[in-house]
Design a protein that fits this description.
By secondary structure, the protein is α+β, with helices and mostly antiparallel strands. The protein folds into three domains: 226 residues, P-loop containing nucleotide triphosphate hydrolases (Rossmann fold); 73 residues; 88 residues, no CATH class. It is 50% helix and 15% strand. The protein is built from nine helices and 13 strands. It has a six-stranded antiparallel sheet, with helices on one face. It has a five-stranded mixed sheet with strand order 10-11-3-12-13. It has a two-stranded antiparallel ribbon with strand order 8-9. The longest helix is centred in the C-terminal third of the chain and has 62 residues. The radius of gyration is 54 Å and the shape is rod-shaped.
């Protein structure tokens, strides 16, 4: 919620009386209760000296210039500043050493501590904020909101979560690529039952063994036939050995007759074909099972990686939400259009240099008032950055929110100012 200055009880200036302070010789004026009081004049006329006097009085000497007294005065003409607020406080700067004295409405004298924390250095010097870049404004803003340490801790958490999301997204992308490149098995393809090729191989071996035995038998019978021929030849040639040859012949014929019948040769080609078919089926089965396993693994890996990316994003979102809550709940932004993102202060979603001159000063003034905690005035130097139209808008805004703004503008036209200073004095 945007902070608005209170119209009752807020500390504002009722009168300003400055003599012999820096470039000022004698200047007295009553600022507008709300809106913009413009102190105009040319360079080195004493405009900024007037703001310096107010700054010094309300800062307890923090803004004390190195040289307080005006050189044009004679011996003993020390700076004398009298500031009076609308709620009865009086601030005086006097003497050779520029002593600061504060008197409360009850007449109690004391230092700047009488104001408590009502006046912040932010409000009496908006220049550091206005001149700061977006990153510096961000730091100033979180410091004044009192959440700098918390945001640093959250930023560290955000970086860890961001890095985690980057790793998870990389793994998810890689898993998705693998999954998409993995062929999907044909849902209609039927995986056949495994064939026992060992059994078929053993049948082939037994067939080969029988064929080898057959070949051996054939060879043996052929040998016997040759022997018979030799014997018959020997009988023909050797009549005298006829009886012996006949016996021998009978013996061999008997041996031939005792030989078993030659079996029919076994054709192993069907079994070989069966073996090759079985091996092909088993190979196809293994390929289909491997394809299914690869696909299932890729599918699961992809699911796990996508879930990891989702979890990482959820973790990052949680940190960002925590950071957003720290800004919107623990610290109160003075303007609803101000956001803090990635270490920068943005206005209406854009960087600071996109603001107009009046917007810059309005935001800076809101910041000053928000940090004053009961004080409704701010001091602004360098209003010439805005043209007269923008200055009028700034004045109207101050009147609307009942904010007292005292600022300086470089100009030679007294008509453009609330008061016009020339050579350290007000020019009528």
């Amino acid at each position: 919620m945007a902070a608005k200055p209170s119209d009752k009880g807020g500390l504002t200036l009722a009168s300003v009386d400055i003599k012999n302070f820096k470039r000022i010789k004698c200047v007295r004026f009553d600022p507008k209760a709300a809106g913009l009081t413009k102190i105009g004049g040319m360079n080195k006329a004493g405009k900024t000296s007037g703001l310096n006097a107010i700054q010094m009085g309300f800062s307890g000497g923090k803004y004390r210039p190195s040289k307080i007294h005006n050189d044009s005065g004679g011996p003993g003409d020390y700076a004398l500043v009298d500031l009076e607020t609308t709620n009865g406080y009086k601030v005086r700067i006097f003497g050779k050493n520029g002593t600061i004295e504060v008197i409360d409405p009850d007449g109690v004298k004391g230092g700047i501590t009488l104001f408590g924390d009502a006046v912040s250095s932010f409000a009496i010097d908006l220049r550091p904020f206005i001149r700061a870049n977006a990153q510096e404004k961000y730091k100033i803003l979180v410091q004044t909101m009192g959440i700098e340490d918390l945001l640093e801790k959250i930023e560290a958490e955000r970086k860890v979560a961001y890095d985690g999301r980057a790793v998870a997204n990389g793994l998810a992308a890689k898993a998705d690529t693998v999954f998409k490149s993995t062929p999907k098995p044909d849902s209609k393809a039927e995986i056949p039952d495994e064939v026992d090729v060992v059994k078929v191989s053993r049948k082939i071996q037994r067939a080969h063994n029988k064929n080898n035995a057959r070949d051996t038998l054939i060879a043996r019978q052929e040998t016997l036939n040759y022997t018979i021929i030799d014997v018959e030849t020997e009988i023909a040639d050797l009549e005298e050995s006829l009886e012996m040859a006949k016996v021998n012949l009978a013996t061999h014929r008997k041996a031939l007759g005792d030989s078993p019948k030659i079996p029919k040769e076994i054709d192993t080609s069907p079994l070989q074909t069966q073996l090759e078919t079985s091996q092909a089926v088993n190979k196809k089965r293994q390929a289909l099972l491997k394809l299914q396993e690869t696909y299932d693994n890729a599918l699961q890996a992809n699911k796990d990686a996508q879930q990891g990316a989702t979890d990482a994003q959820t973790a990052l979102d949680a940190v960002l939400t925590k950071k957003h809550n720290a800004v919107t709940e623990l610290g109160e932004l003075p303007n609803p259009d101000i956001t803090l993102e990635d270490g920068q202060m943005l206005y209406k979603g854009q960087e600071w240099d996109c603001c107009s001159g009046s917007e810059e000063y309005v935001i800076a003034t809101q910041m000053g008032l928000a940090n004053n905690k009961g004080c409704n005035f701010v001091l602004v130097d360098g209003l010439e950055r805005m043209d007269p139209v923008e200055q009028a808008k700034y004045d109207a805004w101050g009147e609307k929110v009942k904010a007292q703004i005292i600022g300086t503008v470089v100009t030679g036209d007294p008509e453009q100012c609330s008061i016009f200073i020339e050579d350290g004095q007000i020019k009528s």
